Amino acid sequence: MERTLSIIKPDAVGKNHIGDIIQRFEKNGLKVISAKMMHLSKSQAEKFYEVHKARPFFKDLVSFMTTGPVFVMVLEGNNAVQVNRDLMGATDPSKAEKGTIRADFAKTIDENAVHGSDSLENAKKEIEFFFSGNEICERTR
Ligand code: CMP
After folding, report:
1. Signal peptide span per the entry (predicted)?
2. 111: domain range?
3. Which of 46, 57, 114 to mutate to test the pocket of ligand 1 (most atoms within 8 A of CB)?
4. Domain count, the chain
5. Which of 27, 28, 60, 73 has the CB geometry, 3.0–4.6 Å to 35, for a possible disulfide?
């Protein structure tokens, strides 16, 4: 059993696709064990995406991520990190496979609907960035 972090980004939230995207996760065996809606500050977005600080797209990424609220979730399931990545599709929606979240709900690499942790190690860090232990709800049934 793994846990991973998912963010529904401001573009997809703005287009009212929160439910459509969660449905993809639930239909594919992932369970939401914590969730919250929040409007990231510039410093929160900069800190979350710190690894990309030196990349040319960093400034635009931070700017986009603060344009509107995001919906942040902890997903749990077998092989959750990879399952989430497969469901999201390629970072660039124009290269994402048909039927993936990014192919269906996004148009550009800058506004690509969702973020998902890229490894189990980063999943742990990203979950801790947004959620404290007592905000995670174990599924008891
Ligand atoms: P995400 O998975 O949230 O991680 C970093 C984000 O930067 C990525 O999705 C894209 O939305 C954005 N981005 C913009 N340009 C690029 C690029 N050339 N390579 C990777 N990510 C990019």
Report:
1. none
2. 2-131
3. 57
4. 1
5. 73
